[in-house]
Design a protein that fits this description.
308 residues, three-stranded antiparallel sheet, elongated, 7 strands, disordered C terminus
C-alpha cells in the first residue's frame, strides 16, 4: 500500500478561551509574548505540514530560532515547557525521526476534516488515513472520516502512549540517564531519551570560559556538532560541572607536565568523556585540588604568575 496523500489544513480553529488557559498564562509569565509566539508558530507548522503532526529536528529548531531571532537555547527552553505541560507531545518514531503533536491538535484536525469532507447519504465521501504510531486519540474518541492504521514502509511501530504517559516516560528516561551519569555509567546511544537538540555555540563558549588552561575551541564545525549530540545522547551531562572538573585536573590541564594533549575534541570523545566523569583524571590525594593565580610576577619570568 502506498503512503497516504498529504492531508494538511489551510487554516485551523482558534479557541476564544486560549488566553485564559492557566497553562498559557504560565507560559506568558515565564517567557513573555515570546513563549506564546513560539507555541502558535508550531501549531501553524503542524497544521500546514502534515495536518496533525510535524517532524522536529535540529533544522526545525534552528529555523524557528532564526525567525524570532532567539538563541536555540531559549527556543529549547520554551519547547521543554510546552512538553512538560502537555501543550505539545514529542514522540520518537525512530533514531532519526522525532515528531511533535498533541491531543488538542488532533481533536481540532478531526473536527476540521469532518467539516470539510462532503457526505453522500450520511457517509463521508472519503477517509482520512492517519498513522497509528502518532495518533493519540483513543478508539472511542476517533470518529469518521478518520481511519487509523499503520503506515507501511516506515520504521516499526512504537507503543502509542497517552499524552500524560508520554511526557512521564520522557521525564523518567531523563532522570535515569542522570542517575547513571552520577554513578559513572554510560547511557546507550539508542536510549529512549529526548532528542538531543543543543545550543552548540553556548556549550563551546562555556568550555572556553571555564577551561582557561586548555586551547580554545574556535568554531562550531559539523564534526563538533556530531560529537556534542553523541555526548548528550549517551550521558546527558551537566557540561558546566564537567568542564569545572577538567579545569581542576593537573593531568588534563598539563600542569603536572606529564601530558598536554587535552582539548575540546579529545574531551568530546565518548571513551574519554566517561573516564572524566568517573574521576579517572581527578587529582590524587595530596595534590593541590585548586590552583589560584597571584598578581606577582613569576620568579622565572613567566607571564602567568605563580600557582599556589
Amino acid at each position: 500500500m502506498s503512503r497516504p496523500k498529504k492531508e494538511n489544513l489551510d487554516y485551523f480553529p482558534f479557541d476564544t478561551d486560549f488566553f485564559i488557559d492557566t497553562k498559557i498564562k504560565i507560559l506568558k509569565a515565564k517567557f513573555g509574548a515570546d513563549g506564546i509566539a513560539v507555541y502558535l508558530y508550531i501549531l501553524c507548522e503542524i497544521y500546514r505540514d502534515k495536518g496533525y503532526y510535524t517532524e522536529c529536528d535540529e533544522d526545525f529548531v534552528l529555523v524557528m530560532s532564526d525567525y524570532f531571532r532567539f538563541s536555540e537555547n531559549k527556543t529549547m527552553q520554551i519547547l521543554e515547557y510546552l512538553f512538560s505541560r502537555s501543550l505539545l507531545v514529542k514522540s520518537k518514531l525512530s533514531e532519526s525521526v522525532t515528531v511533535i503533536t498533541a491531543k488538542s491538535v488532533q481533536r481540532r484536525y478531526q473536527a476540521a476534516k469532518k467539516a470539510s469532507i462532503k457526505k453522500e447519504k450520511g457517509i463521508f465521501a472519503r477517509e482520512v488515513i492517519v498513522d497509528e504510531r502518532i495518533w493519540l486519540l483513543k478508539k472511542e474518541e476517533t470518529e469518521p472520516p478518520i481511519k487509523v492504521q499503520l503506515f507501511e514502509g516506515l520504521p516499526e511501530k512504537n507503543e502509542n502512549l497517552p499524552e500524560e504517559n508520554n511526557n512521564k516516560s520522557m521525564e523518567k528516561s531523563l532522570k535515569e540517564s542522570k542517575v547513571k551519569e552520577r554513578k559513572g555509567e554510560s547511557v546507550p546511544a539508542d536510549a529512549d531519551t529526548p532528542s538531543p537538540f543543543a545550543d552548540y555555540q553556548a556549550i563551546i563558549d562555556l568550555f572556553n570560559k571555564i577551561c582557561t588552561s586548555l586551547p580554545k575551541a574556535q568554531n562550531v564545525s559539523d564534526k563538533r556538532k556530531k560529537q556534542i549530540r553523541s555526548i548528550i545522547r549517551q550521558f546527558n551531562p551537566d557540561f558546566k560541572s564537567v568542564f569545572e572538573k577538567i579545569e581542576k585536573s593537573d593531568f588534563l590541564t598539563g600542569r603536572n607536565g606529564k601530558w598536554n594533549g587535552c582539548g575540546f575534541d579529545w574531551i568530546m570523545n565518548p571513551s574519554n568523556f566517561v573516564k572524566i566523569i568517573e574521576g579517572n583524571y581527578d587529582n590524587k590525594e595530596g595534590n593541590h585540588a585548586e590552583h589560584k593565580r597571584t598578581d606577582e610576577q613569576d620568579p622565572q619570568g613567566g607571564k602567568y604568575g605563580t600557582y599556589l
